[in-house]
Design brief:
3 helices; 4-stranded antiparallel beta sheet; single chain; 37% strand; 2 domains; alpha+beta
């Protein structure tokens, strides 16, 4: 969900009430609940957050807008991110000079090119950041940690 003040990322899991709120001015990230998302917010589906990047015009949020299932590892789906959106935290570009606007446009074009290259894979249930060998040699405490904590 997008409002002029915040980005709200809502989990689609049944029963999930938590919503990630990202302040577009302070860039502060907090957890809130669904009822805090204003009805006026523009809503669109995403499959994940790739991250943020700071360019000339300010910070941008990179989200995955399309995915394709490419396989499974131990019954865990592996997805390939196939399309992205680059969302500006700033509501306007009036604070930039013409040269800064042009530079920012070039950087956004470069970023879009990098994102169009194959190679962005993810899983919501399996740890792709560690090798199978490393996972086999980790402690039970590590195995019980969430993917985010790892």
């Amino acid at each position: 969900h997008i409002t002029p003040e915040k980005f709200f990322v809502e989990a689609c899991d049944d029963g999930a009430d938590d919503v990630l709120a990202i302040d577009r001015v302070s860039t502060e990230v907090t957890l809130t609940v669904k009822k805090d998302v204003p009805p006026s917010a523009v809503t669109r589906p995403i499959y994940g957050i790739l991250g943020t990047i700071r360019l000339v015009a300010g910070t941008y949020l990179i989200v995955i807008t399309k995915k394709k299932k490419v396989g499974e590892i131990f019954s865990h789906a592996i997805w390939k991110a196939t399309d992205f959106d680059i969302l500006s935290y700033k509501k306007t570009m009036l604070h930039l000079t013409d040269i800064q606007l042009q530079d920012n446009k070039v950087f956004l074009s470069m970023l879009s090119h990098v994102l169009s290259v194959d190679g962005f894979y993810f899983s919501t249930t399996y740890d792709l950041t560690h090798t199978l060998q490393r996972l086999a040699n980790t402690s039970p405490e590590f195995q019980e940690m969430s993917l985010l904590e790892r």
